[in-house]
């Protein structure tokens, strides 16, 4: 690292709160490397809901509101992160990193230098990689990519060969691995019909593409202003975001899977439209985490519910392979300079764009 700068520009989260909890620094220390680590010059870093929810403390059981992106009146100190544990501040967030390796740690293969890489959002115990209790998240349990440089374990990165730009590649990691994890948990196969609330978002758009890749039929729910952008992803049917009567809007469609990151007031209707033996899979609740369930619907219809957070280690490499084959389309909605991260996150929260927002150092 002798030829590299000692300090860097970084957007640093100083505590839970509103967007003013971020603090811009131009002299933050460049990360020091340990064994099996590489230093990455960040080309682009995508935004995701985990960053928003961790900043605000939304994951805390003390919060029962929809994701607002603002500070909450009460956040318990013991469970404000995705894993139900405290977070250490200051913290550099940002999980969706794409960049080039510029240095390697002790005893690390120097051939990584110069390679363009994507970082897996999941931090694993590499002696026990399938153990969900031993996982962390990039930009939560360690510093992430909202900076000029970041570091990562070589076992948690993938060299990527693609004509896509860094900003386009930075739209994939969180959204597409989350979506693939959901579809895997629900065992989606050809012949399924998958209902996708929030289809104009990053995960929603990824669900459309990845479910179609499996041969499933897809039905998207999205605000009508974004139907044209959602249509470009190829769903079989697009409906309004929150139909008054979802069953009537679906007509004769038989829904075998609901893949949901929205929750909120529409949730009971999502469950009601599932066919007998149907599967509901969830990886978010941006419209509200508190919902009502009639247990009779659940057991009399033989439904299966699966939560999906920590994904198996193979999913990230699988998604990178799909990217390299040109099987997936990036959903780059907008790019912002890293220093404008608060503005970028405000646009992300307001759902001002369909698709993903990326910051560039």
UniProtKB/TrEMBL annotation:
Q: Which Pfam families match?
A: ADH_N, ADH_zinc_N
Which superkingdom is the protein from? Bacteria
GO MF assignments: NADPH binding; oxidoreductase activity, acting on NAD(P)H; zinc ion binding
Per UniProt, the keywords (alphabetical) are: NADP, Oxidoreductase
Q: Work out whether the entry's keyword set contains NADP.
A: yes
Keyword check for NADP = yes
Write down what this protein is called.
Alcohol dehydrogenase, zinc-containing
